[in-house]
Write a sequence for this structure.
């Protein structure tokens, strides 16, 4: 299609064209774009300190420009022309409104302010702005300066492109400006790296990151190009003010209507504020279209737009008045009841087998028809002897080892030789029915292997000869891309048929080699140091295509990601704990935990290697097994009664001496909790589920509460401790500078507190998980890690799960301790009584379950079954190995 000249159009629009651009406008425009990009980088770097909705005032700044620098020429009135006898005062007012730009600026100001108010509805993330180290005033200044630069850039671009005569010339001019700006920004970046003596590349090659980087560049580039070209052509056919006002109106009206629909949830507690915002936005914009002479908006006639706005307001008002925010039953009480039933159902499914025959049948049904491994009968007798309540449900073992079925045994053995060379890897050797280890020089590592050998020795006579590599560090190390693991797992999940087993060996070999392994395409070298940013990207590659995390890692650390949390929550209470451990639907979690916000300084492999670890996140591919570390607390002998303990929440830890990063300071899970409880500002607010009397019953509704006021309702002891008495490591000094403060270490907190938080360390799960379960208290567990017993824990039955974002912590604690008699909230007396009976029941169930299903004997049963599976996987004849009941064998 040929682009035609638009001279005819310009002849009719000459009076509306801006002044002819000067020659220096183009280089000035390029310079301003580069400066704006630098401002944007600085603002995004400290996005947690920004003000929501500042960008809504862009139309107002353009209106001010029109008022002072782009005034309409006054119409020349012929003095001899007779006055219209049918004219009225209203006609004179209309004529004045259309001629003067002061009313237009006022209307745009109201529109911008309405959208600005609506932007403040978004709940804030617990990723905080530091009052000690962040320059909040400077960041906000850069926000306003950036919006002013946006207005300047739009005006300059409009004045330059409006005087080009064809669409083709406009696009050519625009592409030249964008190219020059890109080159200038790139040169500035390179110059800055050289000036600071920083390398422009990391020198490391990450498997799969090139693909995801190219995909991001293409998708974002195409979206940016379409947006810029569309906005430019739109602006040249009208004016910058019309374009930005329309865009701001659409965004504001959509956001306000969405908030009206959210009323009654924890995201929106106000009934009328969203409606007021919608009224402001929906009335000011039609006024602007009338004053500005816009006969249509996006091809919608002005009259039709007015009818749409009236209809939208009627619908919104109806929803606002009729929608009830009342919740009949507290979600925590509902979850406690549901999970009590679910725990009984889970236990029945996990303990079906009472005879060997049933165990074999159950195994084959749950493993796609594959026979159990050799000596399965020995394992079954061992499990019965150890009084294991879990006989059939070992899903974690299946998840961990299935991908290795897609690798040839020779490849697995090659991988074993690779991990043997890694530092902090111990080797357990099982030969002639005995287990031994490689005697590491480090005493703490030797203690770990001694405990593991002790566990294995109770059944080692029934194991085939093998060697296994043990990761002695807390951090997992195997992080293969999802595509490789999925391909291997699909291959491994299908046991070979009898026909395949009798095929010629050459054909069988070809079938096995059909599956390309990750080692074929990887470098085979470990990544010795991975920055926090690259580490997050590598974990995103471990998610399936189409998942939120694989698509993009969120940069918006300021706002609470409701779409991320709602997938596993009921309101703001964590509902599906197992699903919450999966990072693939919640990209914001990479900014909210020390593990994700610190560089990975252990050797990291992107290929599937046989390495056993004590814990991992769902992204990693280490094989889980029970490990007893020296820092694991001993079994708790808590003989204190639950009712005799103090009704308060406890957590204390020493700061860990890890390197401090920007994200770790503001988003680390421990820093955020301590700051939330001890150092919240007067501006920090959070939704809480509060009770009120409705007749004789108690109903519930969400209300926005200041975090400082909420903290005063509860007895808490959340703090860092400094047991050494000195403060010579960077993290300790940071805590002092941030005014988090230190407290004296509390002795025997598990014996004195009813509720205690259990938080991960920077590298792994808390060593207090099992002691907390064994105590007569209620553990509030917030974690991202999996251990061998994770699948055995039932949330709301054995412990209370807490979302890593902490947005439901106050409501959860309020359900157990109650709010009645503790003062007013937002001017209202509270009627919510504590559910002590539910708390006592959870404490009892957690302790009983820890003494029943997470004993040392259960570690042995789990480890025995895992090593039987592994012994078959590494055997060259694994497709013919299996346990089959013989005739006459006891069933």
């Amino acid at each position: 299609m040929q682009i035609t000249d638009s001279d005819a159009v310009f002849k009719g629009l000459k009076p509306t064209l801006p002044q002819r651009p000067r020659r220096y406008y183009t280089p000035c425009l390029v310079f301003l774009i580069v400066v704006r990009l630098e401002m944007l980088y600085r603002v995004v770097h400290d996005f947690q300190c920004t003000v929501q909705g500042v960008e809504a005032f862009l139309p107002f700044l353009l209106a001010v420009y029109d008022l002072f620098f782009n005034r309409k020429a006054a119409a020349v009135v012929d003095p001899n022309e007779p006055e219209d006898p049918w004219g009225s005062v209203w006609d004179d007012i209309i004529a004045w409104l259309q001629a003067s730009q002061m009313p237009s600026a006022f209307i745009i100001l109201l529109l911008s302010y309405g959208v600005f108010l609506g932007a403040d509805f978004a709940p804030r993330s617990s990723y905080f702005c530091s009052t000690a180290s962040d320059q909040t005033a400077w960041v906000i200044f850069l926000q306003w300066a950036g919006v002013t630069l946006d207005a300047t850039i739009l005006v300059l671009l409009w004045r330059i492109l409006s005087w080009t005569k064809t669409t083709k010339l406009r696009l050519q001019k625009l592409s030249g400006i964008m190219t020059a700006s890109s080159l200038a920004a790139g040169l500035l970046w390179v110059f800055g790296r050289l000036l600071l003596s920083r390398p422009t590349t990391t020198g490391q090659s990450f498997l799969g990151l090139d693909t995801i980087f190219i995909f991001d560049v293409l998708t974002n580039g195409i979206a940016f190009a379409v947006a810029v070209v569309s906005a430019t052509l739109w602006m040249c056919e009208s004016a910058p003010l019309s374009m930005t006002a329309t865009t701001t109106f659409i965004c504001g009206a959509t956001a306000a209507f969405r908030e009206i629909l959210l009323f009654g949830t924890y995201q929106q507690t106000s009934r009328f504020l969203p409606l007021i915002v919608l009224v402001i936005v929906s009335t000011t914009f039609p006024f602007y279209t009338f004053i500005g002479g816009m006969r249509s908006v996006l091809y919608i006639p002005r009259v039709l737009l007015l009818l749409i706005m009236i209809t939208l307001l009627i619908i919104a008002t109806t929803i606002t008045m009729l929608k009830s925010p009342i919740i009949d039953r507290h979600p925590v009480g509902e979850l406690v009841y549901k999970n009590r039933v679910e725990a009984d159902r889970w236990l029945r499914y996990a303990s079906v087998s009472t005879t060997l025959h049933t165990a074999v049948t159950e195994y084959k049904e749950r493993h796609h028809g594959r026979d159990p491994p050799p000596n399965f009968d020995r394992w079954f007798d061992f499990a019965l002897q150890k009084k294991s309540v879990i006989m059939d449900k070992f899903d974690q073992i299946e998840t961990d080892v299935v991908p290795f079925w897609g690798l040839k045994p020779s490849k697995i053995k090659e991988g074993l030789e690779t991990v043997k060379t890694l530092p902090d890897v111990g080797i357990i050797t099982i030969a002639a029915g005995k287990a031994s280890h490689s005697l590491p020089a480090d005493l703490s590592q030797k203690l770990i292997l001694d405990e593991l050998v002790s566990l294995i020795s109770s059944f080692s006579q029934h194991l085939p000869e093998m060697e296994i590599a043990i990761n002695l560090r807390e951090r997992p190390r195997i992080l293969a891309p999802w595509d490789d693991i999925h391909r291997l797992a699909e291959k491994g999940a299908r046991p070979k048929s009898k026909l395949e087993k009798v095929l010629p060996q050459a054909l069988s070999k070809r079938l096995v080699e059909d599956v390309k392994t990750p080692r074929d395409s990887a470098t085979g070298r470990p990544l010795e140091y991975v920055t926090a940013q690259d580490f997050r990207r590598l974990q995103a590659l471990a998610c399936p295509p189409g998942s939120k995390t694989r698509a993009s890692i969120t940069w918006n650390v300021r706002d609470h990601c409701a779409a991320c949390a709602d997938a596993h929550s009921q309101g703001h209470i964590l509902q599906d704990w197992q699903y919450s451990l999966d990072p693939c639907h919640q990209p914001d979690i990479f900014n909210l935990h020390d593990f994700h916000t610190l560089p990975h300084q252990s050797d990291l492999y992107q290929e599937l290697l046989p390495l056993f670890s004590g814990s991992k996140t769902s992204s990693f591919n280490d094989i889980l097994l029970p490990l007893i570390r020296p820092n694991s607390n001993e079994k708790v002998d808590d003989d204190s009664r639950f009712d005799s303990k103090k009704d308060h929440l406890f957590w204390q830890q020493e700061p860990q001496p890890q390197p401090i990063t920007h994200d770790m300071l503001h988003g680390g899970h421990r820093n955020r909790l301590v700051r939330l409880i001890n150092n919240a500002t007067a501006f920090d607010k959070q939704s809480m589920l509060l009770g009120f009397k409705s007749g004789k019953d108690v109903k519930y509704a969400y209300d926005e509460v200041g975090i400082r006021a909420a903290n005063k309702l509860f007895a808490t002891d959340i703090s860092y401790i400094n047991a050494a008495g000195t403060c010579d490591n960077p993290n300790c000094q940071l805590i002092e500078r941030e005014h988090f403060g230190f407290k004296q270490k509390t002795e025997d907190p598990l014996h004195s507190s009813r509720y205690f938080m259990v938080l991960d360390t920077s590298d792994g799960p808390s060593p207090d998980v099992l002691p907390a379960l064994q105590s007569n208290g209620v553990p509030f567990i917030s974690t991202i890690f999996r251990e061998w017993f994770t699948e055995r824990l039932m949330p709301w039955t054995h412990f209370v799960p807490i979302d890593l974002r902490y947005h439901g912590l106050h409501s959860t604690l309020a359900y157990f301790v109650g709010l009645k008699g503790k003062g007013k909230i937002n001017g209202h007396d509270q009627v919510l009584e504590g559910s002590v009976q539910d708390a006592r029941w959870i404490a009892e169930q957690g302790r009983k379950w820890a003494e029943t299903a997470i004993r040392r004997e259960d570690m042995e049963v789990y480890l025995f079954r895992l090593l039987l599976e592994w012994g078959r996987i590494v055997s060259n004849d694994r497709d013919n190995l299996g346990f089959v009941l013989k005739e006459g064998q006891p069933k």
The chain has a mean pLDDT of 86.
